[in-house]
Protein backbone atom coordinates (compact mmCIF):
# COMPACT_ATOMS: atom_id res chain seq x y z
CA UNK A 1 0.00 0.00 0.00
CA UNK A 2 1.13 3.57 -0.72
CA UNK A 3 0.83 5.85 2.32
CA UNK A 4 0.31 9.59 2.61
CA UNK A 5 -0.28 11.57 5.80
CA UNK A 6 -3.95 10.63 6.05
CA UNK A 7 -4.74 8.20 3.22
CA UNK A 8 -3.57 4.87 1.86
CA UNK A 9 -3.79 3.81 -1.79
CA UNK A 10 -4.28 0.07 -2.10
CA UNK A 11 -5.58 -2.49 -4.62
CA UNK A 12 -9.31 -2.69 -5.38
CA UNK A 13 -11.08 -5.27 -3.19
CA UNK A 14 -14.29 -7.08 -4.15
CA UNK A 15 -16.16 -5.49 -1.23
CA UNK A 16 -15.24 -1.97 -2.41
CA UNK A 17 -17.25 -2.38 -5.62
CA UNK A 18 -20.86 -2.02 -4.36
CA UNK A 19 -19.89 1.00 -2.23
CA UNK A 20 -18.12 2.78 -5.10
CA UNK A 21 -21.00 1.96 -7.47
CA UNK A 22 -23.67 3.30 -5.09
CA UNK A 23 -21.83 6.38 -3.81
CA UNK A 24 -19.81 7.53 -6.82
CA UNK A 25 -21.07 6.08 -10.08
CA UNK A 26 -24.84 5.97 -9.37
CA UNK A 27 -24.69 9.71 -8.59
CA UNK A 28 -25.61 11.15 -11.99
CA UNK A 29 -24.32 14.68 -11.33
CA UNK A 30 -21.01 13.56 -9.78
CA UNK A 31 -20.37 10.99 -12.53
CA UNK A 32 -21.31 13.45 -15.31
CA UNK A 33 -18.97 16.09 -13.89
CA UNK A 34 -16.04 13.74 -13.21
CA UNK A 35 -15.99 11.41 -16.20
CA UNK A 36 -16.08 13.45 -19.37
CA UNK A 37 -18.82 11.28 -20.85
CA UNK A 38 -22.50 10.45 -20.62
CA UNK A 39 -23.76 8.88 -17.41
CA UNK A 40 -25.10 5.32 -17.77
CA UNK A 41 -26.20 3.02 -14.95
CA UNK A 42 -23.78 0.22 -14.01
CA UNK A 43 -25.53 -3.13 -13.69
CA UNK A 44 -24.67 -4.89 -10.39
CA UNK A 45 -22.21 -7.71 -11.11
CA UNK A 46 -21.08 -6.26 -14.45
CA UNK A 47 -17.36 -6.08 -15.21
CA UNK A 48 -17.40 -2.31 -15.69
CA UNK A 49 -13.72 -1.28 -16.06
CA UNK A 50 -14.16 1.69 -13.68
CA UNK A 51 -14.91 -0.78 -10.89
CA UNK A 52 -13.36 -4.11 -11.84
CA UNK A 53 -9.63 -3.67 -12.37
CA UNK A 54 -7.90 -5.25 -15.36
CA UNK A 55 -4.36 -5.85 -14.09
CA UNK A 56 -3.17 -6.51 -17.66
CA UNK A 57 -3.90 -2.94 -18.78
CA UNK A 58 -0.42 -1.38 -18.62
CA UNK A 59 -1.67 2.13 -19.35
CA UNK A 60 -3.86 2.38 -16.27
CA UNK A 61 -3.36 1.91 -12.51
CA UNK A 62 -6.46 2.01 -10.33
CA UNK A 63 -6.37 2.31 -6.56
CA UNK A 64 -8.96 2.25 -3.84
CA UNK A 65 -8.36 5.02 -1.30
CA UNK A 66 -8.68 4.26 2.42
CA UNK A 67 -8.27 6.23 5.62
CA UNK A 68 -4.92 5.29 7.16
CA UNK A 69 -6.58 5.42 10.53
CA UNK A 70 -8.98 2.45 10.47
CA UNK A 71 -8.82 1.48 6.80
CA UNK A 72 -12.31 2.73 5.80
CA UNK A 73 -12.84 3.02 2.05
CA UNK A 74 -13.12 6.69 1.03
CA UNK A 75 -12.72 6.74 -2.75
CA UNK A 76 -10.73 5.98 -5.88
CA UNK A 77 -7.47 7.24 -7.36
CA UNK A 78 -6.13 6.59 -10.85
CA UNK A 79 -3.01 7.04 -12.91
CA UNK A 80 -4.23 6.80 -16.51
CA UNK A 81 -3.00 7.27 -20.07
CA UNK A 82 0.49 6.20 -18.97
CA UNK A 83 2.89 6.97 -21.83
CA UNK A 84 6.23 5.28 -21.17
CA UNK A 85 7.95 6.89 -24.19
CA UNK A 86 7.18 10.50 -23.20
CA UNK A 87 7.12 9.50 -19.50
CA UNK A 88 3.84 11.21 -18.87
CA UNK A 89 0.44 10.30 -17.37
CA UNK A 90 -2.82 11.79 -16.14
CA UNK A 91 -4.16 11.53 -12.62
CA UNK A 92 -7.76 11.30 -11.45
CA UNK A 93 -9.54 10.90 -8.13
CA UNK A 94 -13.02 10.73 -6.65
CA UNK A 95 -13.94 10.70 -2.97
CA UNK A 96 -17.18 9.48 -1.41
CA UNK A 97 -19.40 12.48 -0.53
CA UNK A 98 -18.92 12.05 3.25
CA UNK A 99 -15.12 12.15 2.83
CA UNK A 100 -14.83 15.40 0.87
CA UNK A 101 -13.54 18.68 2.29
CA UNK A 102 -11.38 17.04 4.97
CA UNK A 103 -7.99 17.34 3.30
CA UNK A 104 -8.00 13.81 1.90
CA UNK A 105 -8.04 14.96 -1.75
CA UNK A 106 -4.85 17.01 -1.31
CA UNK A 107 -3.16 14.00 0.30
CA UNK A 108 -4.33 11.64 -2.49
CA UNK A 109 -2.78 13.95 -5.10
CA UNK A 110 0.48 13.93 -3.09
CA UNK A 111 0.52 10.12 -3.01
CA UNK A 112 -0.25 9.90 -6.75
CA UNK A 113 2.68 12.27 -7.41
CA UNK A 114 4.95 10.04 -5.36
CA UNK A 115 3.74 7.00 -7.29
CA UNK A 116 4.08 8.73 -10.69
CA UNK A 117 7.44 10.40 -10.18
CA UNK A 118 9.25 8.05 -7.80
CA UNK A 119 7.79 4.59 -8.31
CA UNK A 120 7.13 4.95 -12.07
CA UNK A 121 9.90 7.42 -13.00
CA UNK A 122 7.55 9.71 -14.93
CA UNK A 123 8.57 13.22 -15.96
CA UNK A 124 5.18 14.90 -16.19
CA UNK A 125 1.75 14.51 -14.59
CA UNK A 126 -1.40 16.17 -15.87
CA UNK A 127 -4.90 16.86 -14.55
CA UNK A 128 -7.97 18.02 -16.44
CA UNK A 129 -10.82 19.31 -14.30
CA UNK A 130 -13.91 21.50 -14.67
CA UNK A 131 -13.06 25.17 -14.19
CA UNK A 132 -15.63 25.42 -11.35
CA UNK A 133 -14.18 22.46 -9.40
CA UNK A 134 -12.52 24.60 -6.71
CA UNK A 135 -11.63 21.66 -4.46
CA UNK A 136 -9.86 19.75 -7.27
CA UNK A 137 -8.00 22.85 -8.47
CA UNK A 138 -6.85 23.63 -4.94
CA UNK A 139 -5.83 20.00 -4.21
CA UNK A 140 -3.69 20.07 -7.36
CA UNK A 141 -2.16 23.51 -6.78
CA UNK A 142 -1.30 22.67 -3.17
CA UNK A 143 0.90 19.92 -4.64
CA UNK A 144 2.65 22.24 -7.09
CA UNK A 145 0.50 21.75 -10.23
CA UNK A 146 0.28 24.88 -12.36
CA UNK A 147 -2.54 25.97 -14.66
CA UNK A 148 -1.34 25.56 -18.24
CA UNK A 149 -4.49 26.29 -20.15
CA UNK A 150 -8.21 26.78 -20.26
CA UNK A 151 -10.13 24.45 -22.57
CA UNK A 152 -13.14 26.60 -23.42
CA UNK A 153 -16.53 24.84 -23.58
CA UNK A 154 -14.78 21.47 -23.77
CA UNK A 155 -17.17 19.49 -21.55
CA UNK A 156 -20.89 18.83 -22.06
CA UNK A 157 -22.19 18.44 -18.50
CA UNK A 158 -25.86 18.11 -17.57
CA UNK A 159 -27.25 20.37 -20.27
CA UNK A 160 -24.44 22.91 -20.75
CA UNK A 161 -20.92 23.30 -22.05
CA UNK A 162 -18.37 24.01 -19.31
CA UNK A 163 -14.72 25.04 -19.46
CA UNK A 164 -11.97 22.72 -18.25
CA UNK A 165 -8.62 23.67 -16.75
CA UNK A 166 -5.48 21.81 -17.76
CA UNK A 167 -2.87 21.56 -14.98
CA UNK A 168 0.61 20.10 -15.21
CA UNK A 169 3.48 19.25 -12.87
CA UNK A 170 7.04 18.32 -13.86
CA UNK A 171 9.19 16.01 -11.74
CA UNK A 172 11.87 18.65 -11.10
CA UNK A 173 9.29 21.22 -9.94
CA UNK A 174 7.63 18.67 -7.66
CA UNK A 175 10.98 17.89 -6.02
CA UNK A 176 11.65 21.59 -5.58
CA UNK A 177 8.17 22.05 -4.14
CA UNK A 178 8.74 19.17 -1.68
CA UNK A 179 12.13 20.66 -0.66
CA UNK A 180 10.52 24.08 -0.10
CA UNK A 181 7.80 22.53 2.07
CA UNK A 182 10.45 20.61 4.07
CA UNK A 183 12.46 23.86 4.52
CA UNK A 184 9.35 25.70 5.73
CA UNK A 185 8.57 22.89 8.19
CA UNK A 186 12.19 22.92 9.50
CA UNK A 187 12.02 26.72 9.88
CA UNK A 188 8.70 26.50 11.75
CA UNK A 189 10.06 23.76 14.03
CA UNK A 190 13.21 25.87 14.72
CA UNK A 191 11.06 28.88 15.60
CA UNK A 192 8.94 26.96 18.14
C1 LIG B 1 -12.18 17.06 -5.88
C2 LIG B 1 -11.90 16.25 -4.63
C3 LIG B 1 -11.07 15.02 -4.99
C4 LIG B 1 -11.08 17.14 -3.65
O1 LIG B 1 -10.83 16.45 -2.47
P1 LIG B 1 -11.24 17.03 -1.03
O2 LIG B 1 -10.78 16.06 -0.03
O3 LIG B 1 -12.68 17.38 -1.06
O4 LIG B 1 -10.37 18.37 -0.99
P2 LIG B 1 -9.54 18.89 0.28
O5 LIG B 1 -10.35 18.72 1.51
O6 LIG B 1 -8.18 18.30 0.23
O7 LIG B 1 -9.48 20.45 -0.03
C5 LIG B 1 -8.57 21.02 -0.93
C6 LIG B 1 -8.72 22.51 -0.90
O8 LIG B 1 -9.96 22.87 -1.52
C7 LIG B 1 -10.78 23.59 -0.63
N1 LIG B 1 -12.13 23.09 -0.80
C8 LIG B 1 -12.62 21.88 -0.44
N2 LIG B 1 -13.90 21.75 -0.80
C9 LIG B 1 -14.23 22.94 -1.39
C10 LIG B 1 -15.42 23.43 -1.98
N3 LIG B 1 -16.51 22.69 -2.03
N4 LIG B 1 -15.38 24.68 -2.50
C11 LIG B 1 -14.27 25.45 -2.45
N5 LIG B 1 -13.09 25.01 -1.92
C12 LIG B 1 -13.09 23.78 -1.40
C13 LIG B 1 -10.26 23.29 0.77
O9 LIG B 1 -10.52 24.34 1.67
C14 LIG B 1 -8.78 23.13 0.50
O10 LIG B 1 -8.19 24.41 0.38
P3 LIG B 1 -6.87 24.81 1.26
O11 LIG B 1 -5.81 23.86 0.78
O12 LIG B 1 -6.63 26.21 0.90
O13 LIG B 1 -7.25 24.57 2.67
C15 LIG B 1 -13.22 15.80 -3.91
O14 LIG B 1 -13.94 16.94 -3.48
C16 LIG B 1 -14.12 14.94 -4.80
O15 LIG B 1 -13.95 13.74 -4.86
N6 LIG B 1 -15.08 15.57 -5.51
C17 LIG B 1 -15.98 14.87 -6.40
C18 LIG B 1 -15.29 14.18 -7.56
C19 LIG B 1 -14.39 15.10 -8.35
O16 LIG B 1 -14.69 16.27 -8.58
N7 LIG B 1 -13.24 14.56 -8.78
C20 LIG B 1 -12.27 15.26 -9.57
C21 LIG B 1 -12.58 15.09 -11.02
S1 LIG B 1 -11.34 15.84 -12.04
UniProtKB/TrEMBL annotation:
**InterPro entries (alphabetical):** Acyl_CoA_acyltransferase (IPR016181), GNAT_dom (IPR000182), Ribosomal_N-acetyltransferase (IPR051908)
Q: The N-acetyltransferase domain covers which part of the protein?
A: 7-163
Show the Gene3D superfamilies listed in the entry: 3.40.630.30
- Classification via PROSITE patterns: GNAT (PS51186)
Q: Which UniProt keywords apply?
A: Acyltransferase, Transferase
Assigned EC number: 2.3.-.-
Gene Ontology molecular function, alphabetical: acyltransferase activity
The answer to whether the entry has keyword Secreted is no
Protein name in UniProt: GNAT family N-acetyltransferase
> In which organism is this protein found?
Streptomyces nondiastaticus
Amino acid sequence: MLRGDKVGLRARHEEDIPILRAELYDDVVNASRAEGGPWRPITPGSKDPRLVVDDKNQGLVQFSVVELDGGTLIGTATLWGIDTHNRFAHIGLGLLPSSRGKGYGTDVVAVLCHYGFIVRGLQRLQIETLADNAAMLRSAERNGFVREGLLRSSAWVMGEFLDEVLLGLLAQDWKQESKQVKKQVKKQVAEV
